[in-house]
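Re: the 222-residue chain
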Amino acid sequence: MEIIEAIRNRHSVRQYIDKSIEPEEIERLNALITRLNEEGKLNIQLVTDEPKAFDCMMARYGKFTGVKNYLAMVGKKSDDLDRRVGYYGEWLVLEAQRMGLNTCWVGMSYKKVPEAFRIEDDEKLVCVIALGYGATQGSAHKIKSVEKVARVNGEMPEWFRRGVEAALLAPTAVNQQKFRFELTDGNVVDARAGLGFYSKVDLGIVCYHFEVAAGRDNFRWK
């Protein structure tokens, strides 16, 4: 599955079947996690066969069932931690989709299980990402128009439109889509988060979608 196909096909899934992730898939995920932790200066950890985090009232309220695997999105406390978590977490999400796995970003509908992963004193657990084989493939969410979230002086380049369209397919907290992209100085893209729950994490997620679809050689971030 190509990355653009993964962007189009991936939807949030909250119900999972009782099936362990295959060892070779765990190995692939851990290899990518090692790479992204180094690049993104994060401490993302894959937790498998651990049912306690989603055995709580908040998870049931969020309609999560069968979740036994998740990514603990951990990093050193800093002003840009949330955005980096979103960017590199979505990289993992889309790679999981390409492997035939389903995912869901989870902000609050779980409980921390201290023995399942490690958090150093100068680190923070931002959120987790549920992972596994979904009972369904999820469903598409309602999206805003390109014009609602993008600004360009003059005619919109095709690469910029492709990027924004991909960003609109990205998951955001309660589907708030509180972000904006502005094209300035020919090929400089300014991406900004609005106000809302986990909006900075959302910004990282949508920036990864934008970058993949627009083409990294076509622009630079402001």
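The chain has two domains: 3-132, 146-216.
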